[in-house]
Design a protein that fits this description.
Rossmann fold; 2 domains; binds NADP nicotinamide-adenine-dinucleotide phosphate; 320 residues; alpha/beta; seven-stranded parallel β-sheet
Length: 320
């Protein structure tokens, strides 16, 4: 008998066909609406495998309902939406999709850095709103990217890909990470510094750590107070790493110059969130990995991980 799996969102037909070769597939039919928790709670009771997105909270109470579940395949590199400890206790394999989205997410991070520094979104609105009356010397002036110091917090796969891009723009790159990355230091001529030094010296601070207990509120009032008043914060990692209340105050009081955010503590970010009222913030709807090729690759990797786990083979990307 084929194992039964549930896919929590409508995904590409070809991927579904591939899964159907080895599994009985049940799929939430909507593309833009997440599966309701009550539906997920019912499905999880009988399935052997779960193919899910970062929008699903796979917590203890959900996992405890599962009787046959062997694998949770997350179509993301971050897995902070899954209770790893409970999965481990229940002998459930958890997999993710690192690597395939590294370059695409680094591209987006650099694009957001540039858009924020050079006020691209403001400039576009300025023109469309009919405010462009003349060329003037200090109109919509931003911060230079070339020659600036980029501080990367979290020198992992995406951090390293970002450093490589920054060097092409003649930036000086410093980084802070849980462990020293001597190979990357030698390869790219980047410098390891402690957290305070990074915050004090950087013109751009990019956060690229996973979201864990240790990185919750990693950037809060104290950290923001160390940054230059001309500095820009970019977060394409996870919302909970930056304390939004502290960030709002720092931006509003112009204690830092601007921020570029792809991720939020609550997603979708509520439209009455104070941060959305600020002109010096560029906001995106969590699209770091959103290129057509990369999203298809992520679905493909998540599929391979799922199928291999159900066949009792070792999947390529195992979290636990
Ligand atoms: P990665 O290769 O695992 O890199 C993460 C780095 O963060 C590692 O070098 C790790 O250090 C470091 N780190 C972990 N905890 C730390 C701490 N407390 N202080 C300092 N450094 C710490 O992961 P990745 O593939 O680059 O992805 C990074 C994160 O980006 C993911 O976890 C995900 O949440 C996010 N992401 C977002 C999007 C998006 O759409 N916006 C897309 C992809 C990924 P060690 O080497 O010592 O472990």
């Amino acid at each position: 008998m084929k194992p039964t799996i549930f896919i929590t969102r409508k995904i590409d037909d070809q991927i579904v066909e591939k899964i159907k070769e080895t599994c009985e597939v049940d799929m939430w039919p909507e593309e833009e609406i997440p599966v309701p928790r009550s539906v997920l709670e019912e499905k999880v009771k009988y399935i052997d495998g779960l193919f899910c997105l970062l929008t699903e909270t796979i917590d203890k109470s959900l996992l405890e309902k599962a009787e046959n579940l062997k694998v949770v395949s997350n179509m993301a590199v971050g897995y902070n939406n899954i209770d790893i400890q409970t999965a481990k206790e229940k002998g459930i394999t958890v997999t993710n999709t690192p690597g395939v989205l590294t370059q695409t997410t680094a591209d987006l991070t650099f694009a957001l850095l540039m858009a924020t520094a050079r006020r691209l979104v403001e400039g576009s609105s300025y023109l469309r709103d009919g405010e462009w009356k003349t060329w003037s010397p200090m109109q919509l002036t931003g911060q230079d990217i070339h020659g600036a110091t980029l501080g990367i917090i979290g020198m992992g796969r995406i951090g390293e890909a970002l450093a490589k891009r920054a060097l092409g723009f003649d930036m000086n790159v410093i980084y802070h990470n849980r462990s020293r990355k001597t190979e990357a230091e030698e390869k790219y001529g980047i410098t390891y510094v402690n957290m305070d030094q990074l915050l004090k010296e950087s013109d751009f601070v990019c956060v690229l750590t996973p979201y864990t207990k240790e990185t919750h509120d990693l950037i809060s009032e104290k950290e923001l107070s160390l940054m230059k008043d001309t500095a820009i914060l970019i977060n394409t990692a996870r919302g909970g790493i930056v304390n939004e209340e502290a960030l709002y105050k720092a931006l509003k009081d112009r204690r830092i110059w601007a921020a570029g955010l792809d991720v939020f503590q609550e997603e979708p970010v509520p439209l009455d969130h104070p941060i959305l009222s600020l002109p010096n913030v560029v906001t995106l709807p969590h699209i770091g990995s959103a290129s057509i090729k990369t999203r298809l690759k992520m679905a493909d990797v998540a599929t391979d991980n799922l199928i291999k786990s159900l066949k009792n083979e070792t999947p390529k990307y195992v979290v636990i």
